[in-house]
User: What shape does this take?
Amino acid sequence: MNASEQQKLADLLARARTGSLEAWGELYREFAAPIFRFCRRSLPAREDAEDATTEIFMKVREKLGQYDSSRPFQAWLYKVAANHCWDMLRRRRIRQDLETEGVEEMPLEHPDPSQLDRLLEERSSQDMREALAKLPSRSRMALVLRYYTEMSYDEIAESLGVRRNFVGVVLLRARHQLREALAGQSNSQGAAAGRGQ
Amino acid sequence: MSHFDREIRGHNEGHVDEMSCLQYLEGLLERPRALELSAHTEQCADCRALLRTLERETKLLSFALREQEEPVPARLLAGPARERTPWGWIVSFGLAASGAYWVWTSIIDPWQAQMAQAGFGGSDLLSTLFIQGALLKGWDTMWTMVQALAVVSLGLVGFLLLRRTLRRWNTIALMMTVIVAALALPLGVSAIECHRSDTNYTLPADRVVKDDLLVTGQTVRIDGTVDGDLFIFGQNLTVNGHVTGDVISAGSMLTINGTVDGSVRASLGVLNIHGKVGKNVMSFSGTILTESQSEIGWGATLYSGDATLEGRIGRGITGRMGHASLDGFVGGDVSIKAKDSFDVGPQAQLLGKVQYTGPSQPSVAVGAKIANPIDVNIEAKTSNPDYIFSGMSLWHKLLFWGASFIFGLVLLFIAPGFFNETVQTADRFGVSLGVGALVMIATPVLAFIACLTVVGLGIGISTALLYIIAIYGSKVFFAAWLGRGIFNWGRSKAGSSGPSEHQSFRTVTASGAMVGHMALGLVILYVIRMVPYVGIWLAVMGAVWGFGAMSITLFDRMRHGSAAIAA
Assistant: This one.
């Protein structure tokens, strides 16, 4: 975001904080799409993402007065969104924890670069998103926070409620789980091709 | 061996571990360690390859996450609705008035005209259902008709549900066409003899009418025989003769001295029965008197100000009255709710169970024969201010509050997004009130019209049930809105800053806050309702308000949902 855009955003925020509906509307239209995409990546269903987007903006509107304008607005917005989505996921977590029991203890093997290269070969973004959707909530959320919102490890630690030193491990495990999901796709595609012949 | 060699690559057969590679790529390694890793990868092809592959994986992942592969729902892109309160208010009330006018001119007035002209021939389904249905001919006929309609409707609805290829609006259009066609469908002519008179009409004693007879007039006397149903409307109505079917009546006063083989259904100022009614009496009347020589073969369902029942009633009595007096024979159970008092006279013979609800103990005369002890439930008059604040009333209020609260919690749990949106929509109070009034009036009318059609019976009944639930639920949304407003006002007065930015919203979730707002709002709503006279109107206004907000939110969701699908 260049200086003029930053200034425009600052003006918009200032007006929105004074209660200007017009400014709030502009702010909403500016950020609704990226926040929806963030929710779409973080939450399992599209309907959840739609509801979450609406709720996040309600929270933002309610708490706009508490925003510290010396910090980037997008970072604050994503932090609110992350907390909201993580809260939603935590409510459903008991069941999911049972499903993913034992994953945390799984040993991580040192990757073979050539093998990993083959796995990534001709992988589309769609394949990647489908694999991502199969990950446990925390792993998916960690990857989204890091590679979509570009949050720092400190911010991710705060959002996910884990120690800062543990964030790297969470991300690493998430990548391994993602590779397994991608490998699973390859196997099922291979099996389907075999049946077709 | 350097620090890096010892700590980072030790267990990977002299290669850099994956975690360090990732942190290096993301610029998170401290500078000395990053330099060491960089130097190592210049010499180690495997580690260089790993770095390259991980970087590729990161890019692929980032791109997949950021790609805009699916459209954002239109309702989200549309943005928050702007305040247009005055126009919305005016338009909504205008529409409500237009709707009411349309209903009157298109449905009620023509139907009344048909009745006035006494031409049941060429009647449509609407009037047929009224005339041949529950209101006039009894529930047996109505039930048969409902069963037939239900079977056909289920078949058609099943057919429509199976046709998934039909798009929603096509289906609705088809349904509307069928409804209109069914309403317009002329049915068979009913045989009926009609007499309209501005003054008097008398059916002579030696005259026999072999069809149904409809008579209107100031003074109407039926001395002869009607071999069918008798529809009789006027001021002074007297049946001295014999009616083989039912008597359906509305007017000032009806006296039955003769014999009615069927039932009497009436809405009158005074209903006076001296003679004999073969089946049931259902009456909404100011005063009801059944004299000692009168006889009702089956039961009586009575809603009246003053009821004096001295004759013989074969089965039971059910009703709500101001004052009730029983001084005759009743073969079945009696269930009476009296606003003022209940007397049992000396000639009374009550064979069944007697349940009575009223403000005081019933007065039972010596000589009354009562098979079972009267089950008395004393219920104070609700208009008494002492009652309003009595323990029992407050307990009831608490129970009602609890029921509403649990209902709201369930709603919030099932559809938190919808709940929040509705509460937010309630900020637009004018539009919410207007739309609420419009939809509250229009929905039952449309549901009723749908019920009259073969295809729409299921939809009509479902709509009616949802309508009742929605009416109940509307106060929950209004209460949540009210509670939120008061909470925010109180907080601004207290100067509370709430949770800090860093705490964000983790400690105070939207749902948690909403539960609190709803609880507070419901308490206030129930307190308001305790205020005599004004309270009930304020509560009704709140319900309309909440209903409107709910309707607008539903409409928005449907509209934007359709838009997103189209996009």
In short: The CA atoms of residues 210 and 227 of chain B lie 5 Å apart. The radius of gyration of chain B is 36 Å. The first strand of chain B starts at residue 192 and ends at 196.
